[in-house]
């Protein structure tokens, strides 16, 4: 776990961190790939909510370059594209390491696939 | 072809029966017409369905359904039943030549075998010509004598037979309920990882049905704890995300996270999308409007400490923390999260995080003597669609199902201060629930 779909939905919420707080940058990570059952409706359903540029950049950080730089229009998506997106969103797991806020540099550690996103005392408004 | 269907419900959670039935129907996209005089305390109910296969879906998915039948007739006596059944001959005459069997059962009463035979002989006017097949008949006819539960536990023998029951029901079995067997499958004691706050199997299955879990959906539990709601939602095909302020509840003591071990035991570990540790009032979600459902049993503050980041009101927060030298072992301070604030925040946050039409399913503990319907957090854009009580005497808990009835894009709610969106003037019965619980729900106010 920490799949890229979830990572694409997480931003830094420390006090004052309201811009450039997404996507969190990966550091010292261990990555695993695990197969997941493909469901075209699921992938099509989440597509409008994804921040595409961030997803492409994060995928590159974990060693995957299969996504196009530009997000394709919904009418133009074919099953092959959905399968590629499925792989990136659901089958790549960042099992340990760190996610770092590009703005305030807060370190969110990941251990056994679970990230700790509690804020410290001085970071809650 | 529309048909009248007789449903036999299980003997538990009566208040949950109709909400579950309607949720399952909505999930599969079929219509159920309820009778005008619904009485949830009777175990039998007739409804109108558009197709027989919808009855099969009910039997397959409703945890509280024991069996579903094509309804032929009923009556307060056998003569009334037979009179009405004769008029329904167009329903059973097509089976005139098929194999058949009768099963005569008492509800709240045993029927002696001899009388069962007499009952079956009473149906001889149906003139069934096929052979009797006790194993796999094509026509499985069910007679139910419904007795009241009064006097059931007395040692004196009760009168049974014609005139002593409330109603006798007659129909053709369509399907026995198969969903109830899931209660055994998800039995908490057999689970690889559980804790003292784990929700029992039957109720967590009911919650998953209220949440309309199905393949292709994402369902979220913001107070995931040991994951009980995640498993049942995942079982019905959804992807699930869990978060909790206490990572240890989700992890357990082993190296491999407890929730994943249980999910592996059940065969759907891949549908646990992710588990994340954070305070839901300081959540890191980048945007809203992407969850199909939110399903949760929030901490009441009794067995599980309901807490949130920060210090008690009036205690200043430190503005730099030297203890953070080692981020891995730093534990931020927390303070109690009072239940009525938590409940209001949950509804507010759900409105933001849910897709339009998405459901929030959660338990709200209530103090029986003080509860009023307005205790449920009222919020524009979130509509209550069901409210089922689990009664424990002086207190209870209500399974509330709400639906996001708006599609406006809103700003993320600020959960630091009480929002003006929530009606603050009414003091709900569950305010300071923890204190009331430990005071035994007595109203004694010290002078």
Rg of chain B over CA atoms, rounded to whole Å, is 26 Å
Global shape of chain B: elongated
SSE string of chain B, helices as H and strands as E: EHEEHEHHEHEEHHEHEHHEEEEHEEEH
Average pLDDT level of chain A: 93
- Number of strand segments of chain A: 4
The sequence of SSEs of chain A as H and E is HEHHHEEE
Quaternary status = heterodimer
Whole-Å distance between the termini of chain B?
68 Å
Folded structure, characterized:
The complex is a heterodimer of chains A (125) and B (447). Chain A has 125 residues and is α+β, with helices and mostly antiparallel strands. Chain A has helices spanning 4-7, 40-46, 52-61, 79-91; strands at 25-33, 92-100, 107-111, 114-115. Chain A is 27% helix and 20% strand. Chain A has a four-stranded antiparallel beta sheet. Chain A starts with a helix and ends in a 10-residue tail after the last strand. Helix content of chain B is 23%, strand content 26%. The N and C termini of chain B lie far apart (68 Å). The A-B interface holds A 1-3, 5-6, 8-13, 22, 34-37, 39, 41-42, 45-46, 49, 51, 90, 107, 109, 111-122, 124-125 and B 215-218, 239, 241, 245, 247, 250-251, 255-257, 260, 270, 272-279, 282-287, 289-290, 309-311, 317-321, 324, 327-328, 330, 332-333, 416.
């Amino acid at each position: 776990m920490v799949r890229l779909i979830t990572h694409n939905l997480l931003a830094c919420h420390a006090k004052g961190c309201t811009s450039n707080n997404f996507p969190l940058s990966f550091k010292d990570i261990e990555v695993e790939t695990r197969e997941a059952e493909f469901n075209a409706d699921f992938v099509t359903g989440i597509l409008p909510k994804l921040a595409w540029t961030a997803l492409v950049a994060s995928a590159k950080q974990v060693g995957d370059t299969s996504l196009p730089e530009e997000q394709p229009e919904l009418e133009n998506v074919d099953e092959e594209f959905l399968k590629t997106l499925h792989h990136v969103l659901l089958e790549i797991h960042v099992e340990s390491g760190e996610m770092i806020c590009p703005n305030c540099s807060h370190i969110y550690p990941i251990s056994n696939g679970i990230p700790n996103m509690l804020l410290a005392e001085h970071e809650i408004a | 072809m529309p048909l009248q269907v007789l449903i036999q419900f299980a003997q538990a959670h009566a208040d949950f029966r109709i909400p579950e039935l309607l949720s399952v129907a909505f999930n599969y996209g079929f219509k159920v017409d309820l009778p005008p005089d619904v009485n949830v305390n009777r175990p039998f109910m007739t409804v109108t369905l558009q197709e027989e296969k919808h009855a099969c879906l009910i039997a397959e998915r409703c945890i509280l359904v024991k069996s579903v039948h094509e309804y032929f007739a009923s009556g307060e006596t056998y003569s009334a039943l037979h009179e009405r059944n004769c008029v329904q001959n167009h329903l059973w005459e097509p089976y005139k030549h098929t194999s058949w069997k009768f099963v005569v059962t008492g509800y709240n009463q045993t029927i002696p075998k001899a009388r069962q035979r007499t009952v079956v002989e009473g149906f001889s006017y149906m003139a069934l010509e096929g052979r009797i097949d006790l194993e796999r008949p094509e026509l499985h006819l069910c007679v139910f004598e419904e007795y009241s539960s009064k006097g059931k536990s007395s040692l004196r023998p009760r009168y049974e037979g014609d005139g002593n029951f409330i109603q006798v029901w007659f129909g053709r079995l369509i399907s026995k309920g198969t969903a109830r067997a899931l209660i055994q499958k998800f039995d908490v004691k057999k689970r690889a990882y559980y804790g003292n706050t784990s929700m029992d199997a039957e109720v967590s299955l009911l919650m998953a049905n209220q949440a309309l879990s199905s393949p292709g959906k994402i369902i979220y539990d913001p107070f995931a704890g040991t994951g009980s709601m995640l498993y049942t939602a995942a079982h019905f095909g959804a992807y699930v995300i869990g978060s909790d302020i206490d990572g240890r509840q989700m992890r357990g003591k082993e190296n491999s996270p407890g929730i994943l071990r249980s999910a592996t035991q059940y065969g759907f570990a891949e549908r646990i999308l992710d588990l994340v540790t954070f305070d839901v009032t300081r959540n890191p979600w980048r945007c809203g409007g992407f969850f199909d459902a939110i399903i949760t049993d929030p901490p009441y503050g009794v067995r599980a400490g309901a807490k949130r980041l920060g210090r008690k009101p009036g205690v200043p927060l430190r503005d730099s923390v030297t203890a953070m030298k080692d981020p891995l072992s730093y534990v931020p301070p927390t303070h109690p999260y009072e239940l009525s604030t938590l409940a209001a925040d949950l509804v507010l946050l759900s409105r933001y995080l849910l897709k339009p039409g998405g459901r929030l399913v959660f338990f709200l503990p209530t103090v029986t003597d003080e509860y009023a319907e307005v205790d449920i957090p009222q919020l524009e854009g979130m509509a209550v669609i069901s409210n089922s009580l689990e009664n424990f005497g002086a207190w209870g808990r209500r399974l509330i199902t709400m639906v996001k009835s708006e599609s406006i894009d809103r700003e993320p709610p600020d959960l630091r201060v009480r929002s003006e969106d929530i009606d603050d003037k009414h003091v709900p019965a569950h305010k300071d629930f923890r204190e009331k619980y430990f005071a035994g729900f007595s109203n004694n106010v010290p002078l």
